[in-house]
Amino acid sequence: MIAYIQSLLSEILRDMSLELSDFTVEHPSNPEFGDVSTNIALKLAHVLKKNPLLIAEDLRKEIEARQESIIKKIECVPPGFINFFVADEFYQSMVERLINEGSNFMKPTREGKKVQIEFVSANPTGPLTIGHGRQAVLGDTIARIFEWYGNDVTREYYFNNAGRQMQRLGESVYARCKQLLGEEYPIPEGGYEGEYIKEIAQEYLKEKKNVLPKNPLDEDIINFAADRIFSMIRETLKRLGVIHDVFTNERDLYTEGKIDEVLSILRKKGYLYDKDGAIWFKATLFGAEKDRVFVKRSGEPTYRLPDIAYHREKLLRGFDVIIDIFGADHHATYPDVKAGLEAMGYDTSKIIVLLHQFVTLTRDGKLVKMSTRKANFVTLDELIDLVGPDVVRYFYLIRSMDAHLNFDLELAQKESDENPVFYLQYAHARMSNILKHSQQKGIDYYLDGDIHLLSEPETLDVLKVAAEFGEVMEVCRRTLEPMHLTTYLQKLATTFHKFYATHRVVTDDLLLSKARLKMVYAIKTLLAEALGILGVTAPDVM
RNA sequence: GCCCCGAUAGCUCAAUUGGAUAGAGCAACGGUCUUCUAAACCGUAGGUUACAGGUUCGAUUCCUGUUCGGGGUACCA
Questions:
Q1: pTM for this predicted structure
Q2: Host H or E run for residue A161
């Protein structure tokens, strides 16, 4: 609807040979101001140096002359808004569209881009935390939004299985093994102390028949631990419906010479220099305060170099859109990666970096400090155990990325039967139940129902919300914030519950019953579709 | 010091590229089940949008400054 009015207005502007791009067309919050409203006359007033109300009147005549019967009334209101009242038929037609188009309802033509989304990317040193969970759900849902638009999406997980962290992991397992064998052996400084390390140690001893390698840093033990932890991580993600297509590890970048390639390109272009035994990158040429070390005196690269090599690979793999999802603590690292890529001559405009704020966890009103090393965290798995995957997913999506997410453990548990996600699912279950009930009442077909009978305000409100679906998806697509879909669904469910409370669907009036059943069926399709984009199930019975 | 994010109802948060009377949920209080699920609906109450300026027809939104939180600012990742 907004798009329709927008194009109508643009057409008129063109015919008047006027240029104006920053006018808005939107749904006003107050229904008195119509279904759609525009400030175009207010904006034109500046250009034309004329009273906005007079401009509005002129525009109204133009619009009325051009439009089809979709708009039933146009009003011009001070200070110069033009308000549109849409004909009921337009909203009623949503029912037909939903039934005919199904999951393609309001879907634009297939975009067909190659999209890559990197998210989670936790190194395999321990179970996923609640912080990782936010990223997992956010990334997956953004992926689903891109898929809805008909893009080819690759979900990717990048990890480092070679660094110092992994050595500490190996040492920690080694120490636990020693302890299990009855020896005094301390957990190394900065090692991992979680219970899962003991379990891995037990498994390792069992598999190796109690024979340990001589060296605590032995690759075998590190790889064993990493494999175990990785399968834990995958299992956890799977519970949330998150499945990565590609796992890329940092070690391969070394063995395949990708790191050296980056260094030699940058060297050749003159962006590297040696100082104090280290290799430095001229980051100041790209706006940084200081130059950055790329290779330490010890010969090891800093984290920036593999990150750059990895992103170069992404660009070379031919993606049209590359999205990185990181926690807020990464905000300083991306500019260096971008600078490195630009120094090599790559176009970084395809890369979108999304930073989400942290997740804090409170228990009994107190902040729970989370550290993987100390293992005093609540794991993502435990959270899923507590409230179930649907609630976890929905809670993570309900906030914008820029907002801190406070997860109150008590509340998450207590709310599990009085929760916003159940509100949505309940609406869906109600719809299913109505349809089931109608069959029991002997109404075996209702898709021939007459949509023109859907004329009460509560009924039309549901259809009006349905008509906004495409616009909401657009907002999600533009802002990459799935949160907008959650607020939309809340609205859809509210209007439906209200309709349900006011009007009985199945009555003695067969014609009216059929019309309403048809609508219920259509809205159920929409609700299920939208819940699916969020990765939340749509139950038929609750 | 510098950079990023935030500050809106008692609590957790919205407000779709600057719009008209700032909205939900939870918590509080009151009402609604003989009828398709009361996990619902209706109503009441709750606000100087952190503070001070500025930009304009119009600011929660944009700009400047201040205060308070969170995160960064490594030859850690």
A1: 0.93
A2: none
